[in-house]
Amino acid sequence: MTLLDEILAFNASFVRDRQYEPFKTDTLPNKKLLILTCMDSRLVELLPHAMNVRNGDVKILKNAGALVTHPFGSVMRSIIVGVYKLNVQEIAVVGHHDCGVTGLHSAEILDKAMAHGISEVTLSTLKNAGIDFENWLRGFDRAEDGVRQSVDMIRRHPLLPPRLPVHGLIISPATGKLDLIISGYETVKK
């Protein structure tokens, strides 16, 4: 049985037995908070428990490193939709210690892509088309740097309200302890 077969078999019983009922909610986040965090598998259940959020409380965006890498990319698009369409009134960027994006360099990823069958011709064509792998596939030196970069890009975005609190935190994937890096309340006072 494949992984997909297992998922679909479980889902059939999940729906049949109405196990979805405890998760029913509407589309607007109860706490009016959007969380941008890392896709690290250690945070799937830990982060919501550590932040005391339940189904329906928040909007959660996940990507590698909790990074906003482009002011008009899909992460910012989702944040803007959250603010203007889904009643988000605060944002929390939550990075984590021991992040796999720490020290990430494009050469490492591109070498692995080639080992999986992506040709030099394809990479060369993309580079010639203007894809800047060096900047697109880079990480950060410290998780705190990534959080600060993302908070700054969100806070300074020309399409977001200037009084929108954007917080920056780091979570321990071992204990769930949150460390405050930036209080969005303090930055909107300035």
How does this structure look, described?
The protein has 190 residues and is of the alpha/beta class. The protein has a domain at 26-104 and 139-189: 3-Layer(aba) Sandwich (Beta-carbonic Anhydrase, Chain A), CATH 3.40.1050.10. The protein is built from eight helices and five strands. The chain has a five-stranded mixed beta sheet. Helix 2 links the parallel strand 1 and strand 2 (58-63). The longest helix is centred in the N-terminal third of the chain and has 14 residues, at 3-16. The termini are far apart.
Count of alpha/pi helices: 8
CATH homology-level superfamily of the domain at 26-104 and 139-189: Carbonic anhydrase
The CATH class of the domain at 26-104 and 139-189, by name, is Alpha Beta
**Bulk shape:** globular
Rg of Cα set: 19 Å
- Quaternary structure of the protein: single chain
CATH-derived topology of the domain at 26-104 and 139-189: Beta-carbonic Anhydrase, Chain A
Topology:
Layout: H1 3-16, E1 33-38, H2 43-50, E2 58-63, H3 74-85, E3 90-96, H4 106-115, H5 120-128, H6 133-136, H7 143-155, E4 166-171, E5 178-182, H8 184-189
Parallel strand pairs: 1-2, 1-3, 3-4
Antiparallel strand pairs: 4-5
Gist?
By secondary structure, this protein is α/β, with parallel strands linked by helices.
Features:
190 residues; alpha/beta; globular; 8 helices; five-stranded mixed beta sheet; Beta-carbonic Anhydrase, Chain A; single chain
